[in-house]
Design brief:
It contains seven helices and eleven strands. It is α+β, with helices and mostly antiparallel strands and 242 residues long. The strands form four sheets. A five-stranded antiparallel β-sheet has the order 7-8-9-6-10. Strands 1-2 form a two-stranded antiparallel ribbon.
């Protein structure tokens, strides 16, 4: 819903479809925190015809992603003590979000270490979550092939895991996920402030200093908040890295 005031567009309400029927929400400001496919569906077509910033969003693409989970009977990322890696009762290994250039999965984590309350299981070890992106080669591949391929790359990254047995694997595919950072696309990424005075954008596809990532999404949220408050973005610094 919108109204024209002195030639400017302003959102006056948002209609939501709920299990109990349509609900209208009214607010002073509206923030659309979406991925690329989501914002492309959300924006009204007449906004796109009227404003280049909105029209340019349709030029952006999204890459497919395949997320692979692998459960082992030991601790795959333990590098120093191979024997300790074989004891599921005593967790050990790398407790962090990890990145690699030596595998088809760009980032991964052992969820049993990083989030034990949710993912640690008695009698089991690591639960690796590996993100294959761009996932173009994997969308049409069979899940068993993807699991075997990813397991093989995990074992090459961590030779100490050779004694671990893969207990279970699962694959989740998203045909459209992260913003595709193709050459020439940067000018089409929108700023958080839009031509609609009380409508703002957030999401790692928007213009900010990071790639499409959790860090980029966080940065976009900070920039969007600053735009809503009409003040410069003030980012915290750390004495450890300053």
């Amino acid at each position: 819903h919108e109204q024209e005031q002195d030639g400017a567009t302003r959102v006056t309400g948002l209609s939501l479809t709920t299990p109990t029927g349509e609900r209208r929400v009214q607010a002073d400001a509206y923030l659309a925190a979406c991925d690329v496919p989501g914002i492309q569906r959300l924006l009204p077509e007449h906004w796109k015809r009227r404003h280049a910033q909105f029209a340019n969003i349709d030029r952006l693409g999204a890459v497919p992603v395949a997320t692979v989970q692998l459960r082992y009977d030991g601790w795959v990322t333990e590098l120093r003590q191979p024997r300790a890696a074989m004891d599921p009762a005593h967790p050990t290994g790398l407790d962090n979000l990890l990145y690699t250039a030596d595998a088809d999965f760009s980032c991964f984590a052992d969820l049993a270490l990083a989030s034990p309350a949710d993912y640690r299981k008695p009698g089991c070890g690591s639960l690796l979550q590996c993100v294959l992106t761009p996932g173009d080669p994997w969308i049409k591949a069979g899940n068993e092939h993807i699991i075997a391929h990813t397991d093989g790359q995990v074992r090459r990254l961590f030779p100490s895991s050779s004694g671990c047995t893969l207990l279970w694997g699962n694959v989740v595919k998203l045909a459209q996920s992260l913003y595709r950072e193709a050459p020439g696309m940067e000018p089409y990424r929108p700023e958080q402030r839009t031509p609609v005075s009380n409508f703002f954008l957030a999401g790692s596809y928007t213009r900010q200093d990071y790639i499409d990532s959790m860090e980029g999404a966080t940065m976009s949220g900070l920039l969007a908040a600053a735009a809503i408050l009409n003040r410069p973005a003030r980012l915290a610094t750390s004495a450890a890295v300053a």
